[in-house]
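Sample entry (208 residues):
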Amino acid sequence: MTSATRHRAELMYDLLTSVVRALSWADALQRPVRFHQQHPFSADDPTQPFLPATIPGGSPLRFCNESRATDLYQIDHIELYPKPLHIDDVFEVHLYGTFLQNITTNATWTMSARGINSTETETGVWDFCHAVDSIEQPDPGRRRECPPEKGFALVKMSGWVMPMYIVPGTYYFRFDAKTEEGQQIYCLESEIHLDYRDKDKDSAHDHG
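Predicted structure, serialized as C-alpha cells:
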C-alpha cells in the first residue's frame, strides 16, 4: 500500500469512527470508455427540473432530492463492482456522463455518512480531484485529466470496505460535488447494507 493510499485510509477512518464505517480510496483499474448514452433531460429545458429516481447500471446509488438537470455533470449510467458489496471487498465505481462546462480548480467533494438508525451524521470534505481516481475523456488534446473539461467523461473511483472497522448493518451515504463558487456538479446518495460474504467471519466477529 502506498503512503498516499494509507493517508486516505486514515482520513476515512477519522470521518466514520462514530458510525464504525471507513473507506480507503485506492487507484482504479484502467478500463476504456465503452459507451455514451444520451441523458433524458436537457439542461436547457426548465420544465424538466428533476432527474430520474433510478440511474441505469444497477448500482444502489441514486440522485439526491436537490439534483437537477442543470447539475454540471449529467450522469447517464453508474456501475459498481462487485455487487452486492460486502465487508472486505475492494470495489470500483464508474460514473458515465457529460460535463456541461469546464470545471474550475478548487472544486470540492463532500461525503456524509451515518448508520441508518442514527441521527448523527459525520461529514468530510476533499478536493474533487483528490477524491476521484481518474477521469477519462475522449479528447486526446485536452490539457489535463482533472479538473475535467466540457464533454463526455468516465469518472472512476475505487475503495476498500475495511473489515477492521466495520459492524454489519445498513448505512446511509451522500456524495456531493460542488464548484468553488457553490454550483452543484453532482449529488448522489444511497443506503447500503454491509455484511460479511463469509458468515463464519461474521460469527467470529460477534464472538471476538
